Amino acid sequence: MPPKPKFSKEEIIDAALDIVSRDGVAALTARELGEKLGCSSSPIFTVFKSMDEVMQAIRVEAMRRYDKYVSRARDYYPSFKAISILMLRYAKEQPKLFQLLFMAENSQARRFEDVFDSLGETAKLCIEFVMNDYGLTAEEARFLFQYVWTFTYGVSAMSATGMCDFSEDELISMLGNEFMAVMSFIKSGMRGKAITDIRPVKRDDADVDPLSTLSFDKES
């Protein structure tokens, strides 16, 4: 008969998240987790098969908590801007958990659609907010989400890693500018036009059409 678990799955996940939120993913080892629980590492493996399984479980729980954190945006208008501000705020308040959720390597992601699918309920909520608050189609809302989320992610990553320490007023202003730029682009009717695919060309190459879509010279 297998030994009776000394700790529940939830207790182990909570302890693991405490370690990660304080010291980062690299600090989460079986030994550290055992010390956090006040025991050896053995009881952990009566519940989980491996530390990889522990890591998968804490990612799921961390995302559930993040989704709950940003879902408060539903009470504000415009909700999409509110959810973006909450994402930025989360990166400053919980930098290690932000790194766990959004800055780990994703070998399966090849397109933004792959990233979108990994974002869970938050991404679907954003599309809903944009369609309801701005009267955009589902396709337009997804386009807006892709570009504004990518911008928000970049600023959040800088905050989470300590590269920059923007004030909330600065973050709100930058986010508003990016949102208005993408929204104006959508409303202009230029979305999907070839002009957005222009690539840089060498200044001294007189024979090259500057509006062509040539790739960069790899030897430059």
Write structural notes for this entry.
This protein has helices at 9-23, 30-37, 51-70, 79-93, 95-102, 112-118, 121-134, 138-160, 168-188. It starts with 8 loop residues before the first helix and ends in a 32-residue tail after the last helix. The chain contains 9 helices and no strands. The protein is mainly α and 220 residues long. The longest helix has 23 residues, at 138-160. It folds into 2 domains: 1-48, Arc Repressor Mutant, subunit A (Orthogonal Bundle); 61-195, Tetracycline Repressor, domain 2 (Orthogonal Bundle), CATH 1.10.357.
Summarize this structure as a short list of keywords or feature phrases:
single chain; 220 residues; mainly alpha; Arc Repressor Mutant, subunit A; Tetracycline Repressor, domain 2; 2 domains; 0% strand; elongated
Helix content: 55-70%
Based on CA atoms alone, the radius of gyration comes out at 22 Å
Number of strands: 0
Question: How many separate structural domains?
Answer: 2
Q: Shape, please?
A: elongated
| Distance separating the two termini | 67 Å
Give the H and E element order: HHHHHHHHH
- Supply the CATH class of the largest domain: Mainly Alpha
Low-confidence stretches: none
Question: Helix count?
Answer: 9
Report the portion of residues in β strands. under 5%
CATH architectural arrangement of the largest domain: Orthogonal Bundle
CATH topology type of the largest domain: Tetracycline Repressor, domain 2
Average predicted confidence as pLDDT = 85
